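Final report, section 2: Outcomes. Of the targets proposed, Glycosyltransferase RgtA/B/C/D-like domain-containing protein is the one most frequently requested by collaborating groups, and we therefore present its record in full.
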Amino acid sequence: MNLNLWLPAITAWTMVLTACCAAAVLGRMVTGVVLTKDAAGFVAAGAVASMVLAWLWLRMFGTNYLWLLQGDGNDLLYFFGGAAWASEYPQFVAQDGVSDAFNLGTCRMGAIIVGRDCPVYRGGTYTLMSLVGSLLPQATANQLRGGMGIVGPILVAAFTPLVWRADALRVSRWSIPRWLACTCLALLVGVSTGMVGAVANGNMGTAFGAAALAVLIAWACASADHPGLKAAGLGVAAGLAAHLYGEGAVYACFVAALGVLNDAVRTRRLHWIASGGVISLACFLLTENVLLLDLIESLLGIGGMVTAMKWRAWYLAASPITWFAAPFTGIQMDGAQLVHPLELAGGFVMAGGILLLGIRRSRWLVPVGLAFLTASLVLYLERTQYEYGEHKILQLLGPMWTTLLVGLSYRALASQSAATWERYCALVLIGVTGSVSAHFTWQAHAALLRRIPERALTLRFDDGIVDAIRAGDEIVVDPSAVMNTDRFIKQDYATMLAHVRHARVLLSKRVDDSIPPHTQFPRTDTFRRADSPDWLIRIRSADSTSVLNQDLPVQYASPGEYELISLKGKRPVVLSASGWYPCESGHCWTSGTYELEAFVPAACSMGELTVRQTLHAPPEAGLVDVSVNGVHLSKHPATPSGVLRIPLPRGWSTISVAPEWSVTSPSELGQSSDPRKLFAAIEGGNVRCIDAGPSQKR
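The predicted structure is given below as tokens.
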């Protein structure tokens, strides 16, 4: 991850792989073996856990028939773009460099969050996810989400010290291999409610950060023959968590301090609090190095960005006692039922199990410390009613609590001195943990399937863009036929796919009542800077398409999603701009004066814009005024329906059509309850090249 700060991830991964191969060869030459039997077992555990988790995510999000299935959050776009950036460029770059390379503005514009001086930091997650893009150059968004399988080896690393040092787990006469036990423990945490909830909601950085925090809490509990090495490992793991998820630095440093304190109490060397703390802090700072200031800014900035927004929350409105079960129960951000009663009951059982086993196994310090952190965060949420923070702390704390629970349970099962009731209790807790996680995962899967009509893209979504668009192309996007979530998803991913291929999307300055996509702000009003548009992407839904440019032949259609149209040669194009209401089937109403933007290529002598419109309640003597590029062009009688023909010069133009009367609404005229003031229903608009007359050629 530090290499990726200065080098593209593809180069960094190549260097790491080469170093691993060289180390293996050197180990073979020196010791005669590449890996010991135990080490090979834990490597196998990491591989198995990775494959199982990757399969789960791929299956959960319909990878075999969907390009994207998006939950309530839209954060996956950031990780899609971030992984593409990390693969091709270093991450520790100035915002001007980010803007110049991808043409999506700076991270504060909301389309891509990479580079220095960002309000949030997710660089380590981008580095890991770039590995998927390197192996699958045309990976879908769902396949990229399947990269969460990478947490398998991370979670195996969490339990390796525990399983390595504990007695072998025996069931009747059979001994369970350590690698298999480690795999099962890792999978229990990998499918915990916090992890599943984060991935389902598209919060990949949160999920990766939670996995690193699970490593920290497990290591904090583990006994160590060399406390100095453990303190160093805690510092590095805390740095890893901060790399993956910037806001996780606070949690990570607290847990690392708990680990040092635990060793000081266990060895009865209180001076180790200072010595171990210095070692751990030094390793953390060394791991973070130049990112430290960015992390501080991330911690200070994220709260102000989201505090004022409304988020789905449940525990803040429920009885305070539910917080005891919350880390185990989680929250379904997409579900109609945010917290299921059965999961809540299981959460209380798991919370009680932690208390019982922690006292019984004399592992009370770290659970008590984590309880203090949890209580502090909950108190802050309750006092401030900070809705965004509710699901975030559950997604970060939940995997840590689950790690403690399954770790203590395994210790009870593997211990030769454990009482019979203690082993049965551990089995029950592991069973409850698995049941709650399975039910939560199924609920999340079902909730996401219900989102398919409004939040899914078909498997062939990127075919036309990938096959046709090349670096340097200019793509005009017309999103007028869709609104809100539909526009959010289709415009954002079409734009991101184009820009990671170094093409350039152009938008008009259209303003309507739709929720603006992430890519709207950095690309709005860029059509005026067009040099020579190569493509038009006409975004559509299953039953609605734009009323403009219908005379242009479609080169590629992704049914119900978009149409790709070539503009090369003598093909002008027109877009709606300001003054438009959301489009309806077959027409778009305007609110009064409305504007269009058009581009006539240099191959044309000039262009002619044709607009078919029906006016709402025009006066008999009314006139319609037409201006081009701010210059009055003509006046037309206000006939109820008709066609405007407007000559255009070459290049970009803005066309204004204005009524010379005060427009009214249907409700004012007693026609309906519609309160909108209406001028014209636009039923079609096209631009064509025309030959200039002799006088115009002079």
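The mean pLDDT is 88.
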